[in-house]
UniProtKB/TrEMBL annotation:
<dbReference type="InterPro" id="IPR050879">
    <property type="entry name" value="Acyltransferase_3"/>
</dbReference>
<protein>
    <submittedName>
        <fullName>Acyltransferase family protein</fullName>
    </submittedName>
</protein>
<feature type="transmembrane region" description="Helical">
    <location>
        <begin position="35"/>
        <end position="53"/>
    </location>
</feature>
<feature type="transmembrane region" description="Helical">
    <location>
        <begin position="314"/>
        <end position="337"/>
    </location>
</feature>
<feature type="transmembrane region" description="Helical">
    <location>
        <begin position="252"/>
        <end position="271"/>
    </location>
</feature>
<dbReference type="Pfam" id="PF19040">
    <property type="entry name" value="SGNH"/>
</dbReference>
<dbReference type="InterPro" id="IPR002656">
    <property type="entry name" value="Acyl_transf_3_dom"/>
</dbReference>
<feature type="transmembrane region" description="Helical">
    <location>
        <begin position="172"/>
        <end position="189"/>
    </location>
</feature>
<feature type="transmembrane region" description="Helical">
    <location>
        <begin position="283"/>
        <end position="308"/>
    </location>
</feature>
<feature type="transmembrane region" description="Helical">
    <location>
        <begin position="82"/>
        <end position="101"/>
    </location>
</feature>
<keyword id="KW-0472">Membrane</keyword>
<dbReference type="GO" id="GO:0016746">
    <property type="term" value="F:acyltransferase activity"/>
</dbReference>
<dbReference type="Pfam" id="PF01757">
    <property type="entry name" value="Acyl_transf_3"/>
</dbReference>
<feature type="domain" description="SGNH">
    <location>
        <begin position="403"/>
        <end position="614"/>
    </location>
</feature>
<feature type="transmembrane region" description="Helical">
    <location>
        <begin position="201"/>
        <end position="220"/>
    </location>
</feature>
<keyword id="KW-0808">Transferase</keyword>
<feature type="domain" description="Acyltransferase 3">
    <location>
        <begin position="12"/>
        <end position="334"/>
    </location>
</feature>
Length: 629
């Protein structure tokens, strides 16, 4: 048991934990400061595999070993180590999200909370993708994917260590490491499943198993001090090369995970090294003991700050809130929740468990109701503000099917009996015009076929590689569909709409658009300007105002620059540019007569789309009269 206790509290390993958590926190704060800081998670997994396997393996070799007792103790210790602080964090974050988030954003949070509560959030985020969901940087529970992976691995490790003989375990582990690393690499490079692979359990198992292999083979036990010194230096160099050399997680883990994983393994094995003193410094050891709580709290605080400010970068004030808030909550979590739970003697408290569990359940239920309805007067204002009609939170009725990302068979809007048909294509800024053309089409007796895809202008040679994985197939489908429509009738008027400030970030987009305009009768093509863009989400600002948190909504000048560039390009190609962003309806945007026109920073809601349609009647009448000629 002394060996187990010594391994559990090896000071240099605590220092390595500190290095890992600081790397992750710095990367999450600003990736430019430490581009490969995300490998801190991989270092954690190596440490976890080493310590847990050592604990299981030594118990297995004990003379009084009993598999059932060993497993029970193992799972109880893991649950006591992880679950109390974890659910304490979930409870507080849930309360903040309930108050702070808009209804739609809270729905996405709640979905992540459900998977997080049962330690499957890695699977949730592996398939997460929605254009209108808050960005990953604003998902407070994103970081729990690694804890889900860890808990899932704990279900597999005892079977590997306890059910197989030591000889077989030593043979199987290297084979599993090699096979799973190669599978992950294949999925990243050839399979096209980068997002899924990043969060997958199988792609992270090799990192645990490297630590397990160290423990089972007692690597480093017979090393000389000189050999250990060399090993720890090599390990630090490998980790540093990853921290500063990697700049994207899109091809990770796979083979790129090997340098930091091997580096962590060498540092763990080199326990005899004189250089371990640096890792065993009291400050590093203290941070190491706090590492789990620091990891739990730093990301929700960052995500909520970014959600409130609408900016990825943090100013001085937000940085101070992040730093002090993380340290304060981590200390509270560690000293008041994590440590007491770890030291709790269940056999002493067994007579009181029934009563205490009942009281705890009642307390949690009371806290839940309090958080929902009685936190503060501002919370009541928040709930009252949630009574906004659904037309303020969407640009189209879900029941009214639209062809966004696929041909649903409901692509035509307006006067369906009319022989005049225009073709409308673009990204979600064109998709939000479904009601626009439905309303004006009925008034002016024309119909519009609207074919759109998220972040995609469905024209030939559009660069789909810049799109998230979940939207690439949809973009390709709509490009083919648009081509079919153009081949069917090349004389129709064509309308393009898009978020030009986003599309022009791709250096090749302007040339592709110009080539498309010139190839399809530019005199019959109309390109709509991008509607005004905001630096903050107006819907969120209105929600914050209901909580007494005031904030202004500055315009983002990027949309004006983009409109100017698109206008020059369109006119030089012989096509028509409609500067609809200059209509009077936007003079007081994002409001009109105290009605909110926007559902987020860039998209109009249904109220805004209807107002936009009425304001643009003359311009659309000109477009339709051209089609009738």
């Amino acid at each position: 048991m002394r060996a187990v206790d010594h391994a559990k509290y090896r000071l240099d390993i605590q220092g390595l934990r500190a290095l890992a958590v600081l790397a992750v926190m710095l990367f999450h704060y600003d990736p430019a400061l430490l581009p490969g800081g995300y490998v801190g998670v991989d270092i954690f997994l190596v440490i976890s595999g080493f310590l847990i396997t050592q604990q299981l393996f030594l118990k297995k070799q004990a003379a009084d070993y009993a598999a059932t007792v060993c497993l029970r103790r193992f799972y109880v210790s893991r649950l006591r180590r992880i679950v109390p602080a974890y659910f304490f964090m979930l409870l507080l974050v849930w309360g903040v999200a309930k108050l702070l988030f808009t209804d739609d954003d809270y729905a996405y949070f709640l979905a992540s909370l459900k998977s997080t509560a049962i330690f499957t959030s890695n699977q949730y985020f592996a398939h997460f993708g929605n254009y209108f969901a808050p960005g990953l940087a604003e998902q407070p529970l994103l970081h729990t994917w690694s804890l889900a992976v860890e808990m899932q691995f704990y279900l597999l490790l005892p079977a590997l260590v306890l059910m197989l003989s030591g000889t077989w375990v030593k043979r199987v582990i290297p084979i599993l490491i090699l096979v799973l690393v190669l599978v992950a690499e294949w999925q990243l490079r050839l399979g096209g499943h980068r997002q899924e692979t990043y969060y997958a359990l199988y792609s992270r198992i090799p990192e645990f198993l490297v630590g397990s292999w160290l423990a089972i083979n007692v690597v480093g036990r017979d090393w000389s001090q000189r050999c250990a010194d060399g090993a720890i230096l090599v390990g630090l160099v490998l980790i540093a090369s990853s921290l500063f050399g990697l700049n994207s997680a899109s091809s990770f883990p796979g083979l790129l995970s090997l340098p930091p994983v091997i580096g962590a393994a060498l540092i763990i094995a080199a326990s005899r090294s004189r250089l371990s003193v640096a890792l065993a410094h009291p400050v590093m050891v203290w941070i190491g003991f706090l590492s789990y709580s620091l990891y739990l709290w730093h990301w929700p605080i960052l995500a909520c700050i970014r959600y409130y400010t609408g900016s990825q970068s943090l100013g001085l004030q937000a940085t101070l809130v992040f730093g002090f808030g993380t340290l304060l909550l981590a200390c509270l979590s560690f000293y008041l929740v994590e440590e007491p739970a770890r030291k709790l003697r269940l056999n002493v408290l067994r007579p009181y468990l029934t009563v205490s569990s009942t009281l705890a359940g009642a307390l949690l239920a009371g806290v839940g109701l309090l958080g929902l309805y009685q936190v503060a007067p501002a919370a009541k204002a928040y709930i009252a503000s949630a009574g906004l009609g659904s037309e303020y939170t969407r640009y189209a009725d879900p029941a009214d099917l639209i062809c966004h990302g696929s041909d649903t068979g409901h692509c035509v809007k307006g006067d369906l009996t009319s022989e005049l048909e225009v073709l409308v294509i673009g990204d979600s800024h064109a998709a939000m015009l479904n009601d626009f053309f439905a309303e004006l089409g009925k008034e002016q007796h024309f119909k519009a076929r609207v074919l759109t895809a998220s972040s995609c202008i469905p024209i030939p040679d559009f660069n789909i590689s810049k799109l998230p994985e979940w939207s690439q197939a949809q973009c390709l489908n709509q490009i083919r569909r648009v081509q079919t429509e153009l081949e069917r009738d090349r004389s129709r008027v064509l309308v393009l709409a898009g978020m030009w400030s986003y599309q022009l970030q791709d250096s090749g987009f302007a040339a592709n658009l110009e080539a498309f305009l010139k190839a399809h009768r530019p005199d019959r093509i109309y390109v709509l300007s991008q509607v005004p863009l905001w630096l903050k989400n107006p819907m969120r600002i209105q929600r914050f105002a209901s909580l007494g948190l005031t904030s202004r909504i500055p315009v983002d000048p990027a949309y004006r620059r983009a409109n100017d560039e698109i206008s020059r390009l369109v006119k030089s190609s012989g096509a028509h540019f409609l500067a609809l962003d200059q209509l009077p309806v936007f003079s007081q945007a994002p409001w009109l007569a105290e009605n909110l026109l926007y559902m987020d920073e860039s998209h109009l809601n249904q109220v805004g789309v209807r107002a936009y349609a009425q304001a643009a009647q003359m311009q659309i009448r000109t477009l339709v009269s051209h089609d009738a000629q």
